[in-house]
Amino acid sequence: MRGDLNNSRLQFERQRKGNVAFMGGSITEMNAYRPLVGDLLQKRFPQTAFTFTNAGLASTCSSTGAFRLQRDVLDQGPVDLLFVEFAVNDDQDGRFSREECIRGMEGIIRQARLKNPKIDIVMTFFVNEGMIKSYQARKTPLSIEAHEVVAQAYAISTINVAKQFTDQAAAGKITWQQYGGVHPKPAGADFCARMMDSLFSRVWSSPLSAQAQSRAHDLPAKPLDPFSYFNGRFIDPKQAVVKSGWTLAVPDWRSLPGEKRERYTSIPMLCAIKPGSELTLEFDGTAVGAFVVAGPDAGIAEASVDGGPFRAINLSGSFSGSLHYPWTVMLGAGLKSGRHLLALRISGEPKTAGHAMRILQFTAN
């Protein structure tokens, strides 16, 4: 437990209105821990009219979270309480380095606090089998350790489901099968919700004083990483200048092998399938990337910033061998702040299945 959740409590208890958002991957998006936590809040504040925002998006990691935070959370109105989870996806989907875990999570936390200094935040670490093995070996999983560093810097309370589950399983109180695996069954969702309820009981144990007022949370003067994505945002692919080979249209999904997620099958994307296809994009900031849907025919992109050498980027994600899978590929990072020009082209490097790149949004920081 770090800091407090007094700003949201004041809103819930005295104003009797509450805007609560949940951001994460599929564990957040599915009807598991999220609605249970909503029920807990409603039970604690029965007179409060709550608005709950489900900003879970399956398969996405913290970096994508930082780039979509404005669209999916902050644009939904002033948020009083934000729940964030990305430890599992940063681990098994993104396979992120420690640096990327920090850049993504700090991008979310610092951006949220810069735009709404009074927002209360709780961070949750869910669990997969690799994390269990790490804790059994007395090692903290990389993504959890990195996210915990962010939580410490910003005084964010954390719910470590992964550690608690490992300890409880070792004591014979729960099994992986009972919990439900990476995507928790009702028993696993309840496991997390009970931890949340314990946090609420601790942080809201005493009555509010009559003089209690909301206040801005302390913000570290400097970010942990100056290149964290706290200025993260989407850029409409229409802003790109096409030189050759790219089209903005809904792909012909019926002709493509691999599973598709319905949420993406009616969205126009900036697409190229032939080597040599090229475009440019002007952007402001220190990083640029693309939020893509990459499937079995995903190819190799080559990116150059400000006329520098082209760098090859493999567009295949962890699960895109059989699924058209959403993830953010970084095309340039660690840049000097300012105006830049991205050149992006499709490589002719041999690929077994194809050379495709399908862009939902460009990203910039």
Give the CA-based shape: globular
How many runs of DSSP E, i.e. beta strands? 16
Low-confidence stretches: none
Radius of gyration: 21 Å
Number of helices: 11
Structure at a glance:
With 365 residues, the protein is of the alpha+beta class.
In terms of topology, how is this protein built?
Layout: H1 6-15, E1 17-24, H2 26-29, H3 33-44, E2 49-56, H4 62-72, E3 81-84, H5 87-92, H6 98-115, E4 120-125, H7 129-136, H8 142-153, E5 157-160, H9 161-170, H10 176-179, H11 186-203, E6 233-235, E7 241-244, E8 247-249, E9 269-272, E10 278-284, E11 288-294, E12 300-305, E13 311-314, E14 325-332, E15 339-346, E16 357-364
Parallel strand pairs: 1-2, 1-3, 3-4, 4-5
Antiparallel strand pairs: 6-16, 7-10, 8-9, 9-16, 10-15, 11-14, 11-16, 12-13, 12-15
